[in-house]
Amino acid sequence: MALSSAQARMTLLDWLRIDRGATGTREGCAEGDCGACTVVLRRVKRGVVVNEPMNACILLAGQAHGAEVLTVEDIGDVGGQSAALHPVQEAMVRHHGSQCGFCTPGIVMSLYALYQEAARPVSRADVCDQLAGNLCRCTGYRPIIDAALEACAVPPVEQAVASADSLGAITDEQDVFCGDEEAFFAAPRTEEALATLLARYPDALILGGATDAGLWVTKGLMAPRRVIWLGRVRDLDRIERNATELAIGATATVADAARELATLAPDVGEIVRRFGSAQVRASATVGGNIANGSPIGDLAPCLIALGAMIELAQGAALRTLALEDFFIAYKKQDRRPGEYVRRVLIPLPGNTLDFRAYKISKRMDEDISAVLGAFAIELDGRCIVSARIAFGGMAGTPLRARQTEQQMPGIELDDRNSWQIALDTLVSEFAPLSDHRASAAYRCLVARNLLEKALIELAGVPLAQTRIRAFVGATHAAK
Amino acid sequence: MPPSEVLDLKDDTAEALTVVTHSYPQDSSRLHVTGAAAYIDDILEPAGTLHVACGLAPVARGTLRALDLTNVRAAPEVVAVFTAVDVPGRNDIAPMYADEPVLAQGRVLFHGQPLFAVVARTREAARRAARLGVADIAAEPPILTIDDALAAGTRVLPDYDFGQGDANAALAAAPRTLAGRLAIGGQEHFYLEGQAALAVPGEANAMTVYASTQDPAEVQHIVARILGVAEAAVVVETRRMGGAFGGKETQASQWAAIAALAARLTNRPCKLRLDRDDDFAATGKRHDFRADWRVGFDDSGRLLGYDVTLNARCGCSADLSGGVTDRAMFHATNAYFVPDVTVRSHRLKTDTVSNTAFRGFGGPQGILAIERVLDGIAQATGRDALDVRKANLYRPNHDVTPYGMRVDDAAVLREMVDDLEASCGYRQRRADVAAFNAQGGTLRRGLALMPAQFGISFTLAHMNQAGALIHVYKDGSVLLNHGGTEMGQGLFVKVAQVVAEEFGISLDAVRPTATSTAVVPNASPSAASASSDMNGMAARNAAATIKARMTDIAAEHWGVAPQAIFYAQGRVHAGERSMCFGELAALANKARVSLSATGFYKTPDITWNRQARTGKPFYYFAFGAACSEVLIDTLTGEMRLTRVDILQDVGQSLNPAIDIGQIEGGFVQGMGWLTTEELVFDAQGRLATHAPSTYKIPVASDVPADLRVRFTNRPNHKPTIYRSKGVGEPPLLLAISVYSAILDALHSLAPGAQVPLDAPATPERILMAAHALRQGSRDRALTACPAAATSTPSAADP
Q1: Is ipTM over 0.85?
Q2: Using a CB-CB distance cutoff of 8 angstroms, which residues of chain A are in contact with residue B669?
Q3: Coil, helix or strand at residue A306
Q4: Closest Cα of chain B to A473: distance in Å?
Q5: A99 touching B (Cβ < 8 Å)
Q6: How far apart are CA B342 and CA B293, in angstroms?
Q7: B603-627: pLDDT as tens digits
Q8: What integer best gives the mean pLDDT of chain B?
Q9: CB-nearest partner of B764 from A30, A358, A439
């Protein structure tokens, strides 16, 4: 189906509800946090059909180009029996997984994506991760989790082959340009076409996953007239690894990059697990999380501590700079008009590097960090040689704790007295704001304590004694 | 069994029940999972439907001098713009005290108050235009906090107190005392479906409003008042809500009234659905409180005297704050006997959105305070907090509440506490927790087991009434309507079960229908955990009326006595003979017998006299007990609930699956209130936590894998519908065990010290408490000093 330019620039949710009258998909917050609007986009990625959950409220309809949009109305009728429920729906009824029912379609669609995509066996933790972006205010989630575990206890029913074939057919090589000079939704297929568009329309809204920009539309009531969506640019989402570095294309989604990121260090994996929600990770791009310049984006402090570089492109001209130098001031980045973030280059940690990262937020999952601390520490035996320490949430940009870094060399893991100067330095190194997420005093204290926690762990205290999640996991495993 | 306690039940529960007491899914569950259940914004819009949005006040307090709406009117797609002067009736949406306008007039009462409304052809155009209004407001410094209001002496309603004995004397004589302050945060309802209404104008002043409300009758009343028409001209219909939790009791009126006003002014159907941010800003929340307390006790931890002042932040108007604060007072000693007790209250007026009903209706705040006090006594005496709690439970001859009502079945709760203590392995786990914490690591465990006692009934006696209307059709299908509303709590299925049971038919033969003021008039809101009690009884009465008529027909038909007729399995029987229920319905119709009846019920025995401070405000109590175990990270303040055991008294459950859903859901909602859900207002009175991105309700991973819920299934000693008990609100109280467990974990850092922890216990508050305990551990001998009235510091408000 072809969309008009105006339709392509409206949210997918409004298009579904207002234009298509498909009211099973609902608006709960219009900012991608509650998941009531969750739909599944089924598309061919790298030759494979994938089912990805998305928040339709903050996705522009044009971003569904080349995808089959599945809503709660579409998934029943498995095996051709009319009025039959999908196994996920059936389990939700059987386990009393709905009370008021308003969030239920979004939950059903998140679980549908899990049902289709997840490797078996599916664990309770898998279900909770999948549901982190679906708020339910009635049930307390237990029956929903039970329903998910039951539905996903068996392999998925074969999805329609026809839909895979037809999806394959529309995965074409064309540039998409919907609209006119004044108002358009463009989705170039090549970097050359992207460069041309950017040169011609330097004021256009460059859209990655729209998990932030979507809110400019729904909350800021911005009506973007010229939109360039990067989601179709060939190879801009490429993830490559060589002997020394991991290179992540700017439009690789956080979900797609998660596995490679997790290989850098377990804590990077944990930060990525807690990044937004399944819906947000499926949509948000690594480049967008950085280019956006938020002081509380979760990837930047980790990548800065790991010594990442960022590659920017303007036409054929490329330049590379240290990631920390990209962030100039609050929401001000070193990006020129018409320039775009092309890749992030992360050096692979050597075996003398120990990396720790901690995300502190009011709620453990699906929350924005109050503080995120990342510590990349070079060790020589039980002695620290050097450290790169970066924080989010402590200033207007992600920032290195350079004064503290200077106090790190020479620290003996076995001599707590040797930690003190670094800890004392860190507690006063930053002058963060007090806001609704945390007070300045808490931020300073917790930043210091995170370094202490890193040192305790480096010194050899098992994670099950330092981390809540590890403790709970170990206790659970022991049962 | 002492004679003062009533536990012997007249056994009218032995009858075999085939529908009631069995688990059935929520009435719309298949529609929920397929997206087919329609909420207000899903109703197929009548042709020509227009959309309404409001312009909200950008300051918290001041005089509204002028509104420049030129640009609003000129905006694309705009059809009409209106303000308070366009209200044809009375500009008042207040449920009782005429103190809150539908649109601001003269004074700005809070940041986010609706100033004007704009009607446009699309929702987007209306919202865009609404931002173009320019308000000329002579702003004044706002009164925002409880401290501000106490300093300024502002009240929405007069102070009130009650008590027993002489608390001051008891405190003076007590061997040990403690005193402190506890700040208790509010809570946003965060119903997933925001406030919404669709108003359709009709002929001769008629107005039909589809509203997402717990109280269609109140919405009807307010819409009629705003439009200046008779209530009979207004029909309000509610099929279901996408959650409510008290937030759609009075708070739905304003949006329905604005939609109706728009429909009247344009003579077109008009819909208003609030954006989530506007919903946060412009609708009331759970009251935040500050409890100022003094307690006297002996070395065993037994309460001797308690003096508590409950300061409730009510916001800009009275709304339901009178009832909320009264209920906080009624629950100020939870399930504990205090011989000498004074409970005071201040209903504080602030320049903030008017706080309102929220599941528990003040009860949770009152109970949290006394639970904090008992934890403090345990910490001061070195006794286990459960032992302190058990020593103070109501017991024979110690069973009079601070408001003078006797608790005549307190033994139920004592047994439940003992039961849970054993079944959850409390003592062993207490030892495990102590051993773990003794290792001195950065992670600490905490454990707490608490009882809860919640009074069931509206404390305003006249609200304890309900009506129902039942039609039986010639095919034997049954249409059920009652004044209760379905917000997800399972009321519709429970009442339908009652009706199916009465007629001896299967549940699917009974069709619950949308609550409508045109069908059952003057209904009370679905609130106070009393909806299934009241509507179930009203519906049974209606069914019994029809059944009696049908029985006469059957008796006549078969030539037997009416006593010989019975109804079972969809058939009507007399000895060996039987016919389908539908056949009898057709027969009755042919015999010109009405197959339609209303039913009515009023809860007996509610005698509370507020002025005299005598009588009984509650028909009965619902009891519960919960044990929570937590793990905290004392370096970061992060917290995890690791196990919960719950035992809830639901009487004889009408529907066990639904009741378990209420228990678990209520508990988790209460856990959110006390942990991650934090309302932060900035210095200008703007709510900074205005959406789920900044206001954090629990997610799936916050709920422990180890969650064990049981209920007593012991019949109510009062003759409620099938001797069930209300279950909507009581389980929320049990989440206070999470807060107490956090206190317990923190207490391990400085045994003997009082833990300075306000609610909600966010990571920040937990870390700051841990920090203070570590810093102040040298001083702990002071706080534990017998007979020294000491103050526990109150954590700073962020």
Answers
A1: yes
A2: 137, 140
A3: coil
A4: 10
A5: yes
A6: 10
A7: 999 999 999 999 999 999 999 999 9
A8: 95
A9: A439
CA distance B407 to chain A (A): 31
Sequence-ordered alpha helix ranges (H) in B593-655: none
* A134 and B CB contact within 8 Å: yes
A48-55 and A38-45 beta bridge pairing: antiparallel
**What's the half-sphere exposure (Cβ side, CA atoms, 13 Å) at B489?**
27
Interchain contact B656–A (C-beta under 8 A): no
pLDDT in the model for residue B746:
98
Beta-strand relationship, B289-297 and B176-184: antiparallel
pLDDT digits (tens, 9 = 90+) for B494-545: 999 999 999 999 999 999 999 999 999 999 999 999 999 999 999 999 999 9
Map out the domains of chain A with their CATH numbers.
8-171 (3.10.20.30), 239-347 (3.30.465.10), 361-470 (3.30.390.50)
| Residue B550 to residue B543: CA distance in whole angstroms | 10
The catalytic residues of B are: 729
| B-contacting residues in A 296-335 (Cβ below 8 Å) | none
Measure CA B347 to chain center: 19
Quick one: pLDDT at residue A2? 83
Tokens representing B194? 């925001």
A457 φ, ψ (degrees, to nearest 5): -70, -40
CB–CB contact A139 B665 (8 Å)? yes
Mind listing the pLDDT tens digit for each residue in A290-325? 988 888 889 999 999 999 999 999 988 999 999 999
Which residues in chain B touch residue A363, judged by CB atoms under 8 angstroms apart?
676, 696, 698-699, 702
Q: Is the Cβ–Cβ distance between A133 and A66 less than 8 Å? A: no
pTM over 0.90: yes
- Residue B48's DSSP bridge partners are none
Closest C-alpha among A104, A326, A288, A121 to residue A210: A288
Structure tokens belonging to residue B534: 């009241």
Q: List pLDDT tens digits, range A247-274.
A: 999 999 999 999 999 999 999 999 999 9
Mutate to test the interface with B, among A356, A362, A472 (most CBs of B within 10 A): A362
Q: Do B699 and A438 touch (CB under 8 A)?
A: no
A7 contacts chain B (CB < 8 A): no
Please give the helix or strand (H or E) that residue A52 lies within, else none.
strand A48-55
Distance from CA of A433 to the nearest CA of B (A): 12
Count of A-B CB contacts under 8 Å:
279
pLDDT at residue A286 above 60? yes
* Neighbouring C-beta atoms of residue A385, cutoff 10 Å: 15
CB contact A144 to B (< 8 Å): yes
Which residues from chain B sit within 8 angstroms of residue A76, using beta carbons? 34
Which pLDDT value is given to residue B500? 98
What mean pLDDT do residues A231-242 have?
A: 95
* Residue-range domains of chain B with CATH: 29-37+465-602 (3.30.365.10), 48-141+195-273 (3.90.1170.50), 289-459+610-792 (3.30.365.10)
Laid out side by side, the sheet with B596-602 consists of B510-512, B478-482, B465-472, B596-602
Nearest Cβ partner for B638 among A127, A145, A364: A364
**Minimal CA separation from A85 to chain B, in Å:** 8
For B708-757, write each residue's pLDDT tens digit: 999 998 999 999 999 999 999 999 999 999 999 999 999 999 999 999 99
Q: How far, in whole angstroms, is CA B695 from its chain's centroid? A: 19
Q: Which residues of B touch A221 (CB under 8 A)?
A: 124, 127-128, 131
Are the beta carbons of B371 and B334 closer than 8 angstroms? yes
Report whether A400 contacts A408 (CB < 8 A). Answer: no
- B240 and A26 within 8 Å at the Cβ level: the answer is no
- Cβ <8 Å between A141 and B668: yes
Alpha-carbon distances of B597 from B464, B503, B563, B593, rounded to whole Å = 21, 14, 21, 11
